[in-house]
Amino acid sequence: MAEALIKVAEGIIGQLAKPALQEIVLLWGVKGELDKLRNTVLSIKAVILDAEEKQAQNGAISDWLRKLTDVLYEADDLLDDFSTEVLQREVMTRNKKAKEVRIFFSKSNQLAYGLKMGHKIKAIKGRLDAIDVDKNRYKLEGRPRETQVTNSVRKTHGCVSVEAKYFIGREVDQKVIIERLLDSNIEENVSVLPIVGIGGLGKTTLAQYVFNDDKINSHFHKKLWVCISDDFDVERIVEKILENATGKKQEKLEMSTLINVLHKEIDEMRYLLVLDDVWNDNAEKWDKLKGSLLCGARGSRILVTTREKKVANISKTMEPHFLGGLNEEESWSLF
Fold first, then answer.
1. Which residue among 115, 119, 125, 310 has its CA within the 20 to 30 Å range from the CA of 262?
2. What is the mean pLDDT of each run of 10 residues along the chain (335 residues)?
3. Do 284 and 291 contact (CB within 8 A), yes or no?
4. pTM higher than the cut 0.85
5. What Rg do the C-alpha atoms of the chain give, in angstroms?
6. Which CATH superfamily is 155-334 part of?
7. ∠ Cα 73 311 104 (to 5°)
8. Residue 200 burial (CB < 10 Å; 0-12/13-18/19+)?
């Protein structure tokens, strides 16, 4: 449960950092509330692992986790509403008649929506604040989130974690991505292919099926998987990649030493690296990370999953694969 809660918290933090959302909340006058919400989620996220471990000895902590689960999912839904509103406004601006746009963006319309969302944000933040206070009463402590690794893959993400019968409507996407990853006509030693789509479309699951495909297994000498989320610290990412490559946790090393050790692991090897759930849109950070990975043999690939087109544009060397929604028949089948 802890991993799932941390993932939701990271998704909330990532959504709050979106430039488009930041711009629109300034217009609505609720940026201060969202900033406070982010700080509270960060504070609570740090103690989730400790809470999961201690709940067996203290039933009150189990209740605390249940309350936290409810509020985090409500916060996530609220931010989805925000994102939908932002998208709707972008579409209206591009496609609607000028009169309709003026009505949609009228001062009264903005004020009404801002007040409504402001009340919802304050209500959720109030509940989270109470949960945050309780964490001190239960003496919950922050601890680092350990990365579980095996010889080739982050255990909780790289291996397929859903039954094949629930992998519906993505067979064509899987085939296309595998063909592009195996394309021998690409001249670069290391190429980057982003998978782009909104939250909940199944980007990670699709990447898992690609990662574990027999053709992929036989083609690449080494496979690596790292979940990124909101933490795009280049040194930490290199550490995680190295942990995947060696199957053991690394001692704290200088960045230059980490890169040298990583190069020994992947030098002249054709590797596949999955960077799952990337939010970073800082080109300088991305270039620094990619620069440490260029020693692979020709045909090495980096597969990036992201919700953001801007992230894909910064990281890509191959055209991104955009993931659409399922058709009606596939949706009913999944349901």
1. 310
2. 77 72 57 77 87 83 89 85 66 51 46 70 88 88 52 42 54 93 90 89 87 91 86 87 81 85 89 92 92 91 93 93 75 60
3. no
4. no
5. 22
6. P-loop containing nucleotide triphosphate hydrolases (3.40.50.300)
7. 65
8. exposed
